Amino acid sequence: MRIIRSRTELATLVAQWRNAGETIGAVPTMGSLHNGHLALVNALDGQATRRIVSIFVNPIQFNNATDFELYPRGLEADAALLDGTGKVDVLYAPDAAEMYPQGFATRIMVSGLDGMLCGADRPGHFDGVATVVTKLLLQTGADIAAFGEKDYQQLCLIRRLVQDLDLPVRIQPVPTVREADGLALSSRNRRLTPQQRQQAPYLPAALKTCIADLQSGKPVNTCLNTCHENLKNHGFNVHYLDLRTGDTLLEATKPEPGTRLFVAASLGDIRLIDNMAVA
Length: 279
Description:
Layout: E1 2-4, H1 7-19, E2 24-29, H2 35-42, E3 50-55, H3 65-70, H4 75-85, E4 90-92, H5 96-99, H6 118-121, H7 125-140, E5 144-148, H8 152-164, E6 170-174, H9 194-199, H10 202-215, H11 220-233, E7 237-244, E8 260-267, E9 270-277
Parallel strand pairs: 1-4, 2-3, 2-5, 3-4, 5-6
Antiparallel strand pairs: 7-8, 8-9
């Protein structure tokens, strides 16, 4: 596996691959890798002859400077994990100056999808996501790129920007990978204290209970209010808990095919998100 830090060096290699008729798969990440990220790499099996995993903690998608500084980092361990798969050709690890050189002045905004759920909770976050993902898709020359369903709003936003900007890349969704106790894998989980880690699995458990209530025919508001109170009673600060359509993410009034339950909740200063299909 080759580690590349400059976009010029990456462009040279990508051009060589293109001339040789290779197909390129990309997995954009912010590092602190876990089995969820490896599932993204594995999702490209048989779909790409070359694979690039990028690691870049993107400063412009953080609206909290402390959160950015505390985001887990460990490039050496990440590189070893990727190299061990035997599937990754390049680890692309640019720094901020490489991604956003002096004078950089462009932002990409995906209207509508950026202002709800996590977008409402974290103003400007999805402009930063859309901007960096567009740059990474262009820099890697990806034919296909894998993104996890845990960040479902992000997945929808990226699908929209690819469609709207006519980017020649196919987006491959990958189901959420969970711990044995149901907690969705996330780099942020490493910041949980032992006590918080014991509390955290109640988040997916509460979603499952809420979904069972919805499927039994109970009113949506009743189900959501009960779930919200249960999470609060278990120590969570709930930022949002919504039933939404699975494509446009508009609010849903009843469980129908494609609807999903979305939640963001914090334990202390650790913000956790999750979502599950309802019907």
